[in-house]
Amino acid sequence: MKKLVLLSVTLLFALVLGACEGSSSDEIKVGFIYIGHVGDGGFTYSHDQGRLYLEQQLDVETKYVEAVPESSEVKDRMRELIDQGYNVIIANSFGYMDYVEELSKEYPDVKFLHCSGYKTTDNMGNYFGRIYQARYLTGIVAGLKTQTNKIGYVAAFGIPEVVRGINAFTLGVRSVNPDATVEVTWTNTWYNPTVERQAADALLDKGVDVIAQHQDTPEPQKAAEQRGVFAVGYHSDMNDYAPDAHLVSAVWNWGPYYVDQVSMIQEGTWETGSYWGGIDEAIVDITNLSKNATDDAESTVNDIYNDMKNGEFTVFSGEIKKQDGTIAVESDETLSDEELLSMNWFVEGVIGTIPSD
To answer: 74 φ, ψ to 5°?
Structure first.
């Protein structure tokens, strides 16, 4: 009888232990791979705010690795996280795409989310937001502010994401100021404070009086403030970095998306796919206009903002002309998502060329 009781207790202990081990294996741990530093004040900072929001809302364990180059090194950093038990990997830069795809096939039980790319696998999804909508709105603010009708744009790489943003910004500028132009300077880097600052200074030397950017740090904002002109921020609210220059920022709100995805993973309902939300879903937005904006800017922006949010205004609807004056979008047409995601031409009003590489 004692042996039977002992055996029963032993079996019960084994069952309990097995249940505990099962719940442990089901625990969600989320690892983030960042292209820049969490203190960059821009792109990576915005993602890390999303990570912190995820922790707060779902009480899940997270970890990040920062300043990971867009090379095969990213595979090593992802493997390290996976070896530590992180079973959801979020990689936040376009150049990681092929490496994330490769590892998703190597680790089919791990979920991968890749920012700004276009590839998917059974366990890899991609995500981004229609930041071009926010770009258009900030272009309105810049177009109303410029006195020289010369606006500068510090841009990273000549990929469709960046080109689309430049075009949307320029369309916003010229919707209120048809005489204004937007001159683009390329840096060929996402994150390099020194190079970003030099590019902004070069544009300022040409007489631009508003600087916009597709870069990961506030350095172009600081350059504008130092030279006594104005600036449009990106990724996060950059007002504090250049309060005398800042007009408005186009910003990201990644947190709710992360919560949504991880919740579905926890519930076992997650499916791979591509996400491209807009202002209506609040993944992209603009900040409050600063004291430096013109008096009529807020009402003008609000009207378009509301129409955009309600689906009554679309940025890339015709008539839209290319840089050379030819018609790219007829008056009764709207560009498809496929056309937006492969955009490789500038709209009328942009000064500069798109790099061929």
So the answer is: -60, -30
